[in-house]
Amino acid sequence: LSDHSSLVVGDREIGMVLSIAVEVSVQGHVATVSSTLQYENQEQSPLEAIFVFPLPGEAAVCRFSAKIGQTEVVAEVQEKQKAQEQYDDALSSGQQAFLLEESDESPDVFKLSVGSLPPGEKASVSLDYVTELAVQADDGLRLCLPAVLNPRYQPQGSDSGSGGSAQVSSVPAGSVPYSLSLSAHVSSPHPISRVESNCPLDPLNYLNTEKTQATVSLAAGHQFDRDVELLLYYQDTHQPTAIVEAAQASAKPGSLMGDPVVMLSLYPEFPKDVMSSMTSHGEFLFVVDRSGSMECPMHLGSGSLDRISSARETLLLLLKSLPMGCYFNIIGFGSSYESFFPKSVEYSQKTMDEALQMVKEMRADLGGTEILQPLKHIYSQPCLPDQPRQLFLFTDGEVGNTKEVLDLVKTNAGSHRCFSFGIGEGASTALISGVAKQARGHAQFITGQDRMQPKVMQSLRFALQPAVVDISVKWNVPKEVSVTLLSPPIRVIFQGQRALLYAQLTGEGSVTVKYSLAKQPVENQLSFSLKPAEDTGMTVHRLGARTLIQSLEVEEREQDGEKEGAKEKVIELSVQSGVSSAFTAFIAVHKGDGEALQGQLLRRHVPTPNMSPHQVSECLCDGERPCKDSCYTDMSPLQVSECLCDGRGPALQDSSCYTDMSPLQVSECLCDGERLCKEIILCRYVNGAK
């Protein structure tokens, strides 16, 4: 896999080779993803490599190991500060150490530190995670391997600190100096109809005559210009299922890992007479990201729309599909926000025509991605009587304060539902999926023209469905069976959408879901046996643990650090299950032959692809865009700095300062905090420090 390429940053060559090999094992609607990263130190001194990369926001990282020569060291989960101290101590004493930690700002960004690699040494680092597959509008199951990590805008005065997401070292997508290979093994209780992707694939290979097992691989030559998306299509995908996983033999009975765990996949059926009369009421608020990064292309292929154009087309389709008699408004946001109408207006031919014209003129001209203020404004407005509020959010997800946004949405979840659209490659899964989950809605990812219309119309159909109320889950089990629910309560059910439940239990029984829809009582029941499924690899336990961990993390943030209960529970559960969390990290130390490494330790940042050249341009050019368009197509920080000024901007007195920085770091260096460049602030980054 190694192509022995290297990256030149300024006049320094990063003397290491990195390739990534991914193996995916899909079982029905869950997947286990194993990634192996190859390192080699080609420099003359010991090396520490820092790699910040994206993962799916719902993923449960459950194993991390490193192999040096023939020796493999398996990491253990520890409280984060303790793990960081152990890593630093190991490097100080000349030992090799490996640290994997989740970003403080967003659960879909991780930081991997590899050190100390002696000159000429090779290391292989592996991490595994498990994740659920989202159901798409055309009944496909979506597995996304994030490959693009765009710089995320951190609003001034935000409570979030500078975590992993703020320390990204970026290069233009397509210019990454390492290779990617991916192979997938798909297993399903139902025949596999087909597998599609946004990237070239080798032909699908069926492994049996029933077509319930197959393999597929990513074609060679992936350029890191997009996230890798696999769409899996099964026959009879909407059948409810139950998987019971046996306890871990070494775990203590009564603990999460020491008891069986069941995963229920429910597809509630709504009465046809109710579904035939969709509601015509509602207040539809379309919140559109108009920050500078929305001017970036959807992808690097020919004929690509920019993100704001895609958002415009999506919004035009929705506006033309609203029911007469509802109310609506459109709010654009960036560093500031503005509304089309002073308040929501009734939907009519006249107001629709006015809105359509304003949408066609909408531009990405409002600066940075600050979503908190427009959301606070919306939540401060009273809801209209008998008009349920439906929020449609369109953004590329380049937000640095993801957890603050999610907490705000959760606090106000009782007043609305949120349907989110991630626009373009690299949209934050934690933000897009998180706001929909917290506000009882549905998330969609739009990375091109294909499949946009069915995705948009599916979300609108969900929004127009009658509200489901009085949802209850009843476990029909014998007296000797105990049930501990790991999932949060079911807060929303849509026709054709899957609801997942995880529970820790012993015994045998069934589960009944009851709810009311348009004043009609509805009941769905699924029976299951507690005979454990074979060869599940603790996937169900780990997904259940991740679900519970995420609920406890939200509870801890709500407590604002005043109580230690939730945080302590998260750490205990994370260590017990071996699943990542915001308060823990994976740490592995290889002591080798006991001799300390000699020489100065060099730090190198492994570059991550991004697709956000315009963020820097808008900052440096003060919104007037005096810069040459050709500059954006092949962007290094130094090239951007030289191009954007173009003889009309501030003179770059020390351009060497920018050669070592990502686009976001350039903008932060050159700007005064108001995202407008008024004076040059000379700076230089040495070993990651300003």
Automatic annotation (TrEMBL):
Any Pfam family the entry gives: VWA_3
Domain VIT: 1-131
SUPFAM superfamilies named among the record's database cross-references: vWA-like (SSF53300)
Domain VWFA: 283-464
InterPro entries, per database record: VIT, VWF_A, vWFA_dom_sf
Signal sequence, start to end: none
Protein name (Swiss-Prot/TrEMBL): Uncharacterized protein
Source species: Oncorhynchus tshawytscha
Gene name tied to this protein: VWA5A
